[in-house]
From TrEMBL:
Any one Pfam family match given in the protein's UniProt record, by short name: GH94_b-supersand
Protein species of origin: Actinoplanes campanulatus
Domain Glycosyl hydrolase 94 supersandwich: 15-276
InterPro entries: 6-hairpin_glycosidase_sf, 6hp_glycosidase-like_sf, Gal_mutarotase_sf_dom, GH65_N, GH94_catalytic, GH94_Enzymes, GH94N_CBP, Glyco_hydrolase_94_b-supersand
Name assigned to this protein: Cellobiose phosphorylase
SUPFAM superfamilies the record matches: Galactose mutarotase-like, Six-hairpin glycosidases
Gene Ontology biological process: carbohydrate metabolic process
Keywords: Glycosyltransferase, Transferase
Length: 817
């Protein structure tokens, strides 16, 4: 391969990705915050912050899809007061200024960006401390010259007027409502305080101020951008107070630095709410209540607090990631499993699909389907949060077993705008609950009362919700006995009932989407898998009668798949509204789709009669590329209303034959189920971001986390990734590598060690916490595990007998060649 550019390297010791040139192909971002206060931050300090809800509690402003990309951020300017030269150590927003030794270190929930110019070095550490609703910027400025230096430091953020949607559209109102207050050198942003009277932001600095600014036009100067702020150019703040227009926050600090001296300046940006019955600030007062926040601000402006807050954050991540670590012959695997994939799973859990470089924070709620899958990737780390999340999701389920496609994070109510009719949705709840039970053994969870559609009085045990999920599919079978697809299944864009939610667009059917008779082989595969999981759960509860019923239902559906869903060399995809087959050799385009090959095999369909292996060979022959496995072939060359949105994408992008990374791990898992470790691991490495670091110029997205999509072989930009960070890809890749290739797999009865490794590996080592005990595992050999030595005692098979909580157990898994 030709020598391609890299933009950085992994520092595994520190668990950081180090970017050493700022002009990455796209903004390479990271996340701040772990609980309620969050932010995104790019390698050039772009990004924004919010409290809980990226739409309704947006603290700072950001401009998506701008030129240049990634405008709006947490900016610091340094000014050499002797010469007037000024720059930003994060490169943006002053990219014309040359920097020495630029470096951005993205770590776990923190980012450090630094560089030097003309002998003045500045580095900023950004993080949001645990348990607080604020973020800290710790700036260290060092004079590396041989003479003393006089420098000015300016901070700069632009406030968003809280509701990010309104902020970017409703200018007739918003140009008049911006309000700030500056008291004791703290900038308070209180737009909306007047009306709602309960929340405000503050921005404070540890040093005495030479001045401040809160009106954008004063700070930047008329018709100027962030690259040339008039105040910074002049070296003097204007003490402006915003009345409407665009409130900003900027502090001006002057520093006199001896040769070699380092000074630390701390900025704190935070969010606060007043209690409704505020005694200090009676209704009608227009002054922000500082009584509660002042002590918080003072605490976090102290160097010791910041040092400890940062140490605590690092310790928090040590604790979280300590639950599973592996040492394999492949460094890219270790790095992803031990650090970055686990991190991405937690970030995705926190953010769902709300805020990233591609999700604007205003659009999407929590997905019923997505959230159930996300938890597969972090349930071993934070089982209690998975539990909470499952209860929230299940409470939005409807009494007929159906699901709202999304719910709102603040209200936790099903979202009526998007509604229901994605007929795969309910089945994912069974998979989510099964994963939680396998991890924790917490059977009592199934008896937890959970309402339907959040209706008080409708509570039923969680187990009943699972029954109804399965029933939902059985109540909706189509002409071939396959599940009706409704508006769409996992593939949102395969709209076979020709549903259109765009007013004025033609409907081909007279019914609505859910009324059509299109059927999904994918849902059939998912049903078989879910029915077997529920049978396992029923067995655990001693409900043997139900177990038999669910196993029979799984078997019957598997038979239907074999009869109507098999195309001769692979599983078909669907039948459309007219009964025409989709994903078949009979079609001119879209002959073979990845999803049913993965999901039918995951359900166990075709494992015994060889169909599974045949289908996987077809995937290898027709869909696999060096950059991953494409979603279908041949790509649709034009729009087809009877297929819907899938055909609206140009060939090779997104669902139209893009490498939709979420689906690839299903094939990896399927390959392990037919015993093909070489192929499974080969597919794994094709997507592994760390393994793709060497082709960063082609891949373009961050090399430390997965992207949703890589352009497929029909695309002019084959290999280019998009939509990084918030994707089911994170959880499923984690499951594929840890549970199926490395084979450390929680099961209802305990922890299973069932690796299916690539040939040539001598084995690997792992440490895994499970139900309170710690297992130190050595796998020897690359064949299937036949027996274990558990603390030296021979155990037949591959299931570790559960140990007492607190125990440290040594396990050797012996594989035959
Ligand atoms: C898909 C989009 C689609 C949207 C609609 C997304 O998950 O990737 O292409 O438009 O869902 O549901
Ligand atoms: O399955 C969906 C997911 O729910 C959201 N992103 C796209 C996927 C495929 O359409």
């Amino acid at each position: 391969m030709e020598d391609l550019l890299r933009y950085g390297y992994f520092d595994d010791e520190q668990r950081e990705y180090v970017i050493d040139r700022p002009d990455t192909p796209l903004p390479w971002i990271n996340y701040l915050g772990t609980d309620a206060y969050f932010g995104i931050v790019s390698n050039t300090a772009g990004g924004y912050s919010f409290y809980r809800d990226a739409k309704l509690r947006r603290l700072t402003r950001y401009r998506y899809n701008n030129a240049p990309l990634d405008v709006g951020g947490r900016y610091v300017y340094v000014r050499d007061d002797a010469t007037g030269d000024y720059w930003s150590p994060s490169w943006q927003p002053t990219p014309e200024r040359e920097l020495d030794g630029y470096e951005c270190r993205h770590g776990l929930s923190y980012t450090k960006i630094g560089s030097a110019r003309n002998g003045i070095r500045a580095e900023t550490l950004y993080f949001a401390p645990l348990g607080e609703t604020l973020e800290v910027w710790r700036v260290r400025v060092t004079n590396e010259r041989t003479e003393s230096a006089e420098v000015s430091l300016f901070s700069a953020i632009e406030f968003c007027l809280w509701d990010a949607q309104d902020d970017s559209t409703n200018f007739q109102r918003n140009y008049s409502i911006g309000q700030v207050e500056v008291v004791d050198e703290v900038i308070y942003h209180k737009t909306e305080y007047r009306e709602r009277r309960d929340h405000f932001a503050y921005f404070a600095c540890s040093e005495p101020l030479a001045g401040f600014d809160t009106q954008r036009e004063s700070f930047l100067g008329a018709y100027r951008g962030w690259d040339r702020p008039a105040v910074v150019e002049a070296g003097a703040a204007k003490d402006s107070i915003a009345h409407g227009w665009q409130p900003v926050g900027s502090h001006h600090v002057r520093l006199a630095l001896e040769p070699g001296e380092t000074r630390e300046v701390i900025f704190v940006l935070g969010y606060a709410e007043n209690p409704k019955d505020d005694k200090f600030d009676p209704p009608g007062s227009q002054t922000v209540n500082k009584t509660r926040v002042r002590p918080v601000i003072e605490r976090w402006l102290r160097s010791e607090t910041v040092e400890k807050g940062y140490a605590d954050l690092r310790a928090y991540w040590d604790g979280l990631l300590g639950g599973l670590s592996v040492t394999t012959p492949d460094g890219d695997t270790d790095r992803m499993v031990n650090i970055w994939n686990a991190y991405q799973c937690l970030v995705t859990f926190n953010m769902s699909r709300s805020a990233s470089g591609y999700e604007s924070g205003i659009g999407r709620g929590m997905g019923f389907r997505d959230s159930n899958q996300d938890l597969l990737g972090f349930v071993h780390i934070l089982p209690e949060r998975a539990r909470e999340r499952i209860l929230d999701i299940a409470a939005t389920q409807k009494a007929d077993g159906g699901a709202y496609h999304q719910y709102q994070p603040l209200t936790k109510r099903g979202n009526n705008d998007i509604g229901d009719g994605f007929n795969d949705d309910p089945l994912w709840l069974i998979l989510g609950v099964a994963a939680y039970l396998k991890e924790t053994g917490d059977l009592a969870f199934l008896d937890e009362p959970v309402p339907f559609d959040n209706e008080p009085g409708s509570e039923a045990p969680l187990y009943e919700h699972l029954r109804r999920s399965l029933r939902y599919t059985l109540d909706r079978l189509g002409p071939h006995g396959l599940p009706l697809i409704g508006r769409a299944d996992w593939n949102d864009c395969l709209n076979l009932n020709c549903f259109s939610d765009t007013p004025g667009e033609p409907f081909q059917t007279t019914e609505n989407a859910s009324g059509g008779v299109a059927e999904s082989v994918f849902i059939a595969g998912l049903f078989v898998l879910a029915a077997k999981e529920l049978a396992g759960i029923a067995a655990l509860r001693g409900q043997d009668g139900e177990e038999v019923v669910y196993r029979a239902a799984a078997e019957k559906m598997a038979g239907t798949v074999t009869e109507h869903g098999w195309d001769g060399a692979w599983f078909r995809r669907a039948y459309d509204f007219y009964g025409n087959v989709i994903g078949s050799g009979e079609n001119d385009e879209g002959q073979i789709f990845i999803e049913p090959q993965g999901m039918c095999v995951l359900g166990g369909v075709g494992l015994e009669d060889g169909l599974a292996a045949r289908a996987l060979d077809s995937v290898a022959e027709r869909l696999a590329t060096p950059h991953g496995i494409v979603l279908q072939q041949p790509a649709y060359s034009g729009y087809r209303i009877e297929l819907g949105e899938i055909s609206s994408y140009p060939p090779g992008y997104k669902e139209n034959a893009g490498i939709f990374c979420h689906t690839n791990p299903w094939i990896m898992i399927a390959e392990t189920m037919v015993g093909n470790g070489d192929r499974a691991f080969d597919y794994y490495r094709r997507l592994n971001p760390s393994a793709r670091e060497a082709i960063s110029e082609v891949h373009r997205c961050e090399p430390y986390i997965y992207a949703q999509m890589i352009a497929g072989k029909d695309a002019p930009t084959h290999g280019e990734a998009k939509n990084s960070w918030l994707t089911g890809t994170a959880a499923w890749n984690f499951v594929a590598i840890t549970q199926w290739i490395l084979g450390i797999r929680p099961d209802f009865g305990g922890l299973r060690i069932d690796p299916v490794l690539p040939g040539g590996w001598p084995g690997f080592e792992a440490v895994r916490s499970f139900r309170g005990a710690t297992y130190e595992i050595s796998v020897r050999g690359t064949g299937r595990v036949t027996h274990l030595l558990v603390d030296g005692e021979r155990v037949e098979g591959n299931l570790i007998p559960p140990a007492a909580p607190g125990a440290v157990v040594r396990v050797e898994a012996i594989a035959t060649a």
